[in-house]
Design a protein that fits this description.
With about 250 residues, the protein is an alpha/beta fold. The chain has 5 helices and 9 strands, in the order αββαβαβββαβαββ.
Length: about 250
């Protein structure tokens, strides 16, 4: 599992510090020159005059790492190449949505799929829009070459007043895969750090979905017996950016 980047650490640190300071009457803040100085057991440090607050970070342990990390990565490669191909064509101002329940992993497969998608999308834009294809009609010859990788193609004219094409995508298999189980993710993160980091503040990144209000009580109850000094969750999602102490 990839480590947090310096930019991510700063983002999470600022969200955490604003709530921590409010609850504790302190003024801990991020300092670019010093906060990222490596020092076990901390991933970053915050400063309040002569005082230092060290924090250990961890990503929530997800139930399906393929869904959270691998699938988005391979799907992104397909879409990046698709955008490049479409930029060479005279495209209508459209919104395109694609779903990749099982995106290709090999380079030649990625390239082949991107070119087939570009052909389908461009052909659809020459006809009547909106256009929607899903799993039920991917056996048609027009779409059969990509049915192993794509489960939905949705193309419609833009209504936001902007020009040019826009591509968005997902990677859901349509099955309940457990990736959004917040309690499982937080408990998994706590288990990974228990014993070695009991004496420091643990900051948990929920990864791909924010922890919601109704989940907090259950998470707190499950962490009552944890030996770790303090455990915080930090949501950094549009519309849900906040830090929550759960232990």
């Amino acid at each position: 599992m990839a480590e947090h980047t310096n930019e991510e650490k700063k983002m999470f640190a600022n969200s955490f510090a604003s709530v921590y300071n409010n609850e504790n009457g302190t003024n801990y803040r991020w300092e670019d020159e010093k906060s990222l100085t490596p020092e076990e057991p901390y991933d970053f440090k915050l400063f309040d005059e002569g005082r230092v607050l060290g924090v250990q970070m961890v990503r929530g342990v997800v139930a399906d790492t393929d869904k959270v990390y691998a699938r988005p990565g391979y799907a992104t490669k397909v879409v990046d190449l698709l955008r490049t191909i479409l930029q060479t064509k005279e495209m209508l101002s459209v919104c395109i949505f694609l779903n990749f329940p099982k995106p290709p992993k090999k380079r030649e497969q990625i390239e082949q799929l991107a070119h087939h998608l570009a052909e389908v999308i461009y052909t659809c834009c020459l006809g009547e829009l909106p256009y929607l294809a899903n799993e039920e009609n991917f056996d048609e010859p027009f779409l059969s070459t990509m049915k192993d990788y794509v489960s939905e193609i949705h193309i419609e004219l833009r209504t936001d007043g902007e020009t040019g094409f826009q591509v968005s995508f997902g990677w859901s298999s349509g099955k309940l895969e457990g990736a959004f189980d917040s309690k499982q993710k937080i408990l998994g993160a706590e288990k990974r750090k228990r014993g070695k980091y009991d004496h420091v503040i643990l900051l948990v990144d929920p990864v791909n979905w924010p922890v919601e209000d109704y989940e907090i009580s259950s998470i707190k109850n499950a962490l009552v017996g944890s030996p770790i000094k303090e455990i915080w969750i930090v949501n950094n999602f549009v519309g849900n950016q906040r830090a929550i102490r759960v232990k």
